[in-house]
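Figure 6 in text form: structure in, sequence out.
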């Protein structure tokens, strides 16, 4: 019984340990995952017949310029796709857009971390 108690205390202490701070590269990759998730959501909105004007109106409320540029470019590309393409296999199209924009974001040069809320 004492071993079980000691083990549970040890597990609790390990679980409460501080996480190491993220490197700038890890922070950028986290940001880019959020951009990719936003691209997936924009595609979902397109598939659900949300007009481009509404998407742009919503994007214009973003205060961070880096994020705003990414989102506007995503909207432009997603809404330029033919209707047949976005309806072919809805889930795989969303996943493709998510991975494409995550990769584009990671490959893009950056000087500072954008101010964003994880998506």
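Output sequence:
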């Amino acid at each position: 019984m004492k071993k079980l108690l000691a083990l549970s205390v040890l597990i609790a202490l390990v679980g409460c340990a501080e996480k190491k701070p993220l490197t700038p590269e890890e922070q950028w990759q986290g940001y880019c995952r959020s951009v990719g998730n936003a691209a997936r959501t924009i595609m979902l909105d397109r598939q659900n017949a949300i007009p481009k004007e509404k998407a742009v109106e919503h994007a214009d409320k973003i205060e961070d310029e880096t994020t705003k540029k990414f989102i506007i470019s995503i909207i432009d590309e997603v809404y330029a796709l033919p209707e047949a393409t976005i309806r072919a296999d809805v889930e795989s199209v969303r996943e493709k857009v998510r991975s494409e924009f995550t990769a584009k974001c990671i490959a893009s040069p950056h000087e500072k971390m954008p101010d964003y809320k994880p998506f």
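Caption detail: The two ends are 44 Å apart (CA to CA).
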